[in-house]
Design goal:
Distance between the termini: 88 Å
Strand order of the largest sheet: 2-3-1-4-5
Helix content: 55-70%
Number of strands: 5
Order of helices and strands: HHHHHHHHHHHHHHHHEHEHHEHEHHEHHH
Shape: globular
Largest sheet: 5 strands, parallel
Structural class: mainly alpha
Length: 519
């Protein structure tokens, strides 16, 4: 007798989920395709295909999959969350909010509440996100992810003691939870009597950490050791974190530098003069600059004026511009881009006809485009001492952004490219459109520089501007903790503690910056 033929079992949705959790997007898609070939109405498979399409940057495909998932499982809150995410990344902010609210109305289980909370956080609605995360934690008190998400939102809303307590709880359940260690290290200035250096260094000695987790612990240790004025140990941990992160990324730094050169070549005065008319019915304020250079401080000062609101870091302008240029069926004229930007940036957090400030950092790449699309917009570029700026970037972990910031030479090269770009915008745009401000100047003369900025954006003076640190508005930036304190001088000159170890950085900077400016 012939042996019976062996049949491999049909792949299951659980196998697809395991593949997705492991990061194998291709295997996830193959398994989902096989599942849908057998049963085209499997909503869970369509949900996973939404996730994989988003990871690949295929937003149209993601939207199709999300719509199918919602049609097949209209009561499933996760399907609505994925639909909201697709709409958000597609520039449909108001529709994304409607989908998120549909998800919230259907969410009862802890995992659904946590997912919906994350979507509200993505929308910048942190008070709503906080409530959803708190409900998830109340249902399942021992889930580290839910505790961490609640803590992260509490940090944004200024509830720093609560955030530390929830980080402590998450770490108690999962001692190697590197994200929680990293968040906790930043919630306050650590002291000799109350810090986590020994705890985190013990985790490093124990081993068994993934590369990304070790990176986060190294940066957390660098921050705490610097707080404790253990500068050599701080540098050692930061250097180790940078080296490991740089190896994990394997990016080509020349691409980002080439992008800046291309922008300077294309977006000049002649180009701006020849551009069609933009959308002149709004006058937003853009605050842009390199990370950790004082942009959040400037944003909070301006947004503390009663006539202003903040929309935070939206990436809305870049998203609208890129979508418009990708849509070959529509003419991507500046007025259309400007109007759509205003609609999307202000959809959730700004009352009608109210002016707002947008603090998306890398809008410094788009100053020319912003001016053509929004001719009445005001742009403030923030600068900081070269060595302080570069050291501040080197010691921070940006979780997938600013990939140049993990190597001394690469961060110096990008700083110099940004400096050239800022000079280009200064000669390309008129002084009533573009203002440059130095972080150190704001620290030295808060009142005088604040008055200059308020005058530049066209507002009457209000003393509330000087009380920016008392604002209850959430902040989702890397400086969310610092901006809840009055202006302080302790961040000026921090590079000096590591001057003897920043040789490669200084040597690269001095190629274009006079030695006198590096003192």
């Amino acid at each position: 007798m012939k042996p019976a033929p062996q049949h491999n079992p049909a792949p299951t949705i659980d196998a697809a989920r395991r593949a997705f959790r492991s990061g194998d997007v291709g295997a996830t898609e193959r398994i989902c395709a096989e599942i849908l070939a057998r049963s085209a109405g499997d909503a869970a498979a369509w949900q996973l295909l939404t996730e994989t399409a988003l990871q690949r940057g295929r937003h149209d495909a993601a939207m199709v999959s999300a719509d199918r998932a919602v049609a097949l499982a209209p009561q499933d809150p996760i399907a609505h969350v994925l639909q909201a995410k697709c709409l958000f990344f597609g520039g449909e902010t108001a529709k994304a909010l409607a989908a998120a609210e549909a998800a919230a109305s259907r969410a009862g289980a802890a995992d659904a509440l946590d997912a919906v909370g994350a979507m509200f956080g993505l929308l910048g609605l942190h008070a709503q996100a906080k409530g959803l995360f708190a409900r998830a934690v109340a249902i399942k008190t021992d889930e580290p992810q839910y505790l961490f998400n609640l803590a992260a939102t509490e940090r944004m809303t200024g509830a720093l003691a609560d955030a530390e307590s929830h980080c402590d709880a998450a770490i108690a359940f999962q001692k190697q939870y590197a994200l929680a260690h990293y968040l906790r290290s930043d919630l306050r200035i650590q002291t000799a009597a109350n810090n986590h250096v020994d705890e985190m260094e013990a985790l490093l000695r124990d081993g068994g950490l993934s590369g990304p987790d070790e990176v986060l612990l190294r940066f957390a240790l660098g921050k705490e050791c610097e707080d404790l004025e253990r500068y050599d140990r701080a540098y050692d941990h930061i250097a180790a974190g940078c080296q490991l992160q740089h190896a994990l990324l394997r990016v080509d730094p020349a691409r980002a530098l080439a992008e800046i050169d291309q922008i300077m070549g294309a977006h000049n005065r002649d180009w701006i003069k020849s551009a069609p008319a933009g959308y002149a019915s709004a006058a937003p304020v853009f605050v842009a600059g390199l990370p950790r250079t004082g942009t959040t401080l400037i944003e909070r000062i301006i947004a503390s004026h009663p006539a202003m609101r903040s929309v935070g870091e939206t990436s809305a302008f870049a998203n609208v511009m890129q979508r418009a240029m990708a849509d070959r069926s529509a003419k991507a004229d500046p007025a259309m881009i400007g109007r759509r930007y205003i609609e999307n940036a202000s959809a959730l957090r700004v009352p009608p006809a109210t002016r707002f400030v947008d603090k998306t950092l890398d809008n410094y790449l788009y100053c020319g485009l912003i001016h053509t699309a929004l001719p009445n917009a005001k742009i403030i570029l923030v600068r900081r001492h070269p060595l302080d700026a570069c050291w501040a970037m080197l010691k921070a972990h940006f979780r997938g952004k600013f990939l140049f910031s993990y190597d001394q030479v690469e961060v110096a090269d990008y700083y110099l490219a940004f400096r050239r770009l800022a000079r280009h915008w200064k000669v390309t745009l008129s002084p009533d459109v573009l203002m440059e401000i130095d972080y150190e100047e704001v620290v030295r003369d808060q009142s005088g520089t604040s008055r200059r900025m308020i005058d530049f954006v066209g507002l009457d003076w209000d003393d509330e501007v000087l009380r920016f640190h008392a604002s209850q508005v959430p902040s989702a930036t890397a400086s969310a903790v610092q901006v809840r304190r009055p202006i302080y001088t302790s961040s000026i000159g921090k590079w000096r503690h590591h001057a003897d170890r920043l040789g490669p950085l200084r040597q690269r900077l001095v190629r274009e910056i006079p030695e006198s400016e590096l003192q």
